[in-house]
């Protein structure tokens, strides 16, 4: 007797649960007052050249790195009719990535998908004796573009606030 439920398993599209987080838009003057001043017009969503700005909770726009990376084109800020954004020459946001222990390389499986997509080479792999090359992350080189988040097959990369950058700006 054939169990047809098991046959359909490989035909069903794989849906991985993702912990890629939703992020605020780049160049926001004040994230805490964003919801008070954003009219949810959607102009920033239409202007995004990589289509990573999506309609989030309550209809507010947010960056979803599952769709791609931020190219820092400033089109979202230019399209916004409200004075929500900093000038283009300012730093877009205070975010960098973090690689957790779910990383395949940390489990001795060869994978370098994050480094392959990192234009600034903030993620590099260092050879390790008796194991596969291990990821080395340099927060000074990370722009927070999010290019490395989507290609990670196990969602081991998350975006977090760069406390080092915030501390330096407060001095």
Automatic annotation (TrEMBL):
Cofactor: [4Fe-4S] cluster
Chief place of localization: cytoplasm
Ranges for domain 4Fe-4S ferredoxin-type: 29-58, 59-89, 133-162
Cited InterPro entries: 4Fe4S_Fe-S-bd, 4Fe4S_Fe_S_CS, Fe-S_Ferredoxin, NapF
Signal peptide segment: none
Record-listed [4Fe-4S] cluster 2 binding positions: 70, 73, 76, 80
Binding site for [4Fe-4S] cluster 3: 142, 145, 148, 152
Keyword Iron belongs to the record: yes
Superkingdom in the source lineage: Bacteria
Localization terms from the record: Cytoplasm
Keyword Cytoplasm: yes
Subunit and interaction comment: Interacts with the cytoplasmic NapA precursor.
Record-linked NCBIfam families: napF
Role played: Could be involved in the maturation of NapA, the catalytic subunit of the periplasmic nitrate reductase, before its export into the periplasm.
Protein name stated in the entry: Ferredoxin-type protein NapF
UniProt source species: Enterovibrio norvegicus
